[in-house]
Amino acid sequence: MIILVSDGASSDLSGGNDADIAKRCIEQGIKVFAIHIANSDAPAEIVNITSLTGGEVFNPGDPASLADVFRQIDNMQKSEIEQTIAEQLDHFIPYAFLGLLLLGISLLSTFGLRYTPW
């Protein structure tokens, strides 16, 4: 799912590019939902992309109705999130132990555990 927030002004959608974009989204199984934030109606290109992919165009009139738009989108399509990259793990415990050990040795050496010639 893609949520497109736009004022509708885009030179990328002219010349039939909207059909190409919609075709690529359909091939990937992506639904496009558009939130048109300008005072005018949504452009036909955006309407085409959203209708071809199974999405919808929303035109909230004020910021308060924007929350209603997101609630409607949440109710329309539930998505499952799948992890596609490896999770990074920090192995800091051995290094922290070594650092504390060196700090302790350094601290003990300042209290007189050092070589004095007399």
How would you portray this structure in words?
By secondary structure, the chain is mainly alpha-helical. It has helices at residues 17-28, 44-53, 63-76, 93-110; strands at residues 2-6, 32-36, 57-58. The chain has a domain at 2-76: Rossmann fold, CATH 3.40.50.410. The chain contains 4 helices and 3 strands. The chain has a 3-stranded parallel sheet, covered by helices on one side. Strand 1 (2-6), helix 1 (17-28) and strand 2 (32-36) form a beta-alpha-beta unit. Helix 1 runs parallel beside helix 2 (44-53). It starts with a strand and ends in an 8-residue tail after the last helix.
Provide a compact summary of the structure.
Helices cover 46% and strands 10% of the residues. The longest helix has 18 residues, at 93-110.
Judging from the principal axes of the Cα atoms, what is the shape?
elongated
Number of helices: 4
Query: Over all CA atoms, what is the radius of gyration?
Result: 29 Å
Strand order of the largest sheet: 1-2-3
Q: Helix content range of the residues, please?
A: 40-55%
According to DSSP, the number of beta strands is 3
The CATH C-level name of the domain at 2-76 is Alpha Beta
Please tag this protein with its features.
elongated, 118 residues, single chain, Rossmann fold, mainly alpha
Topology (SSEs and partners):
Elements: E1 2-6, H1 17-28, E2 32-36, H2 44-53, E3 57-58, H3 63-76, H4 93-110
Parallel strand pairs: 1-2, 2-3
